[in-house]
Amino acid sequence: MESNQQTKPGIGELAMDNARDRMGVVMGEIGGRVQMRPIRGGVEWDAMPDNVVSLSARKELSARLAVKNGNRRVGL
User: Fold this and answer.
1) Which positions ≥6 away from 75 have C-beta within 8 Å?
2) DSSP string for residues in the chain
3) Cβ within 8 Å of residue 25, ≥6 positions away
4) CA 48 remoteness from chain centre
5) What's residue 51's pLDDT?
C-alpha cells in the first residue's frame, strides 16, 4: 500500500463522510453503502464507501474531546 492512501475505517471507528462534510461512527455496511451515526448519537445516514475516510489522529482527538466536553456540560 502506498503511504498516501488512507485505509477504510472499520465498524465502530470514527470517520468522515466527505460528500456531506460530516463526521460519524461507522455502524456497518449494507447494500454497498456505509451506515454512519452522528458522534453524539442520532439517526444514521447512508454514505457511499468512496466518500468515507478515516480521520487523522488530530481530528479524531478533537472530535472525542468535543463529545466529552459536551457530556460534562449536561452532567453525563
Assistant:
1) none
2) --TTPPPPP-TT-EEEETTTTEEEEEEEEETTEEEEEETT----EEE-GGGEEEPPHHHHHHHHHHHHHHHHHTT-
3) 12, 13, 14, 15, 36, 37, 38, 39
4) 13
5) 97
Report, as an integer, the average pLDDT of 6-35. 93
> Phi and psi of 22, rounded to 5°?
-130, 140
- pTM for this prediction: 0.79
- Grid cell in block for residue 76: 453525563
Distance CA 59, CA 74 (A): 23
Distance between start and end Cα atoms, the chain: 41
**By the 8 A CB rule, do 4 and 25 touch?**
no
